[in-house]
Amino acid sequence: NGNAGFQQVLERLESDPVCQRLSLKSFLILPFQRITRLKLLLQNILKRTKPGSEEEVQATQAYDALEKLIKDCNENVQRMKSTEELIYLSQKIEFECKIFPLISQSRRLVKCGELTALDFNTPSPKWKVTSRPIYLHLFNDCLLLSRPKE
């Protein structure tokens, strides 16, 4: 987004009839879609091979290898999504002191959400309850509480 020249070239390429008006994102996802189609093809091949034949053994080996590849791809996609979430969060959160590195290879965001904190003030005989929003960010290795900037 920050490189205007790249954006212009990308728009020109995406509007070219050869690309069939598809975005760069659709071209990046095509290989993964093909892998999942190959899995379906191998499942159909396995259904039609004779049990115990050499073809069944080879098709089973190919299927197992393909399943491992798909599993690795899914894990890498999850890891990238997790890293993107951490980058986005680190841009939104401002620490008073920079002693806590939010982005880490091993850290991933498990759950986040808004809660309401209730404060009970008791200086007088009557209870006074005030509320303010706080956000919880649960990572695999720590819990971070944050509040909106006033």
Question: CATH class of the largest domain, please?
Answer: Mainly Alpha
Number of distinct beta strands: 3
In whole angstroms, the N-to-C terminal distance is 30 Å
Shape: elongated
Helix content: 40-55%
What's the architecture of the largest domain, going by CATH?
A: Up-down Bundle
Please report which band the strand proportion falls in: under 5%, 5-15%, 15-25%, 25-35%, 35-45% or over 45%: 15-25%
- Main-sheet strand order equals 1-2-3
The averaged pLDDT comes out at 86
Biggest sheet architecture: 3 strands, antiparallel
Order of helices and strands: HHHEEE
Task: Describe the protein.
With 150 residues, the protein is of the alpha+beta class. The protein folds into 2 domains: 4-91, Dbl Homology Domain, Chain A (Up-down Bundle); 109-146, no CATH class. It has 3 helices and 3 strands. It has helices at 4-15, 24-48, 54-92, and strands spanning 109-121, 128-139, 143-146. Strands 1-2-3 form a 3-stranded antiparallel sheet. Helix 2 runs antiparallel to helix 3.
Short description:
The chain has three helices and three strands, in the order αααβββ. By secondary structure, the protein is of the alpha+beta class.
Topology:
Elements lengths: L3 H12 L8 H25 L5 H39 L16 E13 L6 E12 L3 E4 L4
Antiparallel strand pairs: 1-2, 2-3
GO biological process, one term: intracellular signal transduction
GO molecular function, one term: guanyl-nucleotide exchange factor activity
Organism: Eubucco bourcierii (red-headed barbet)
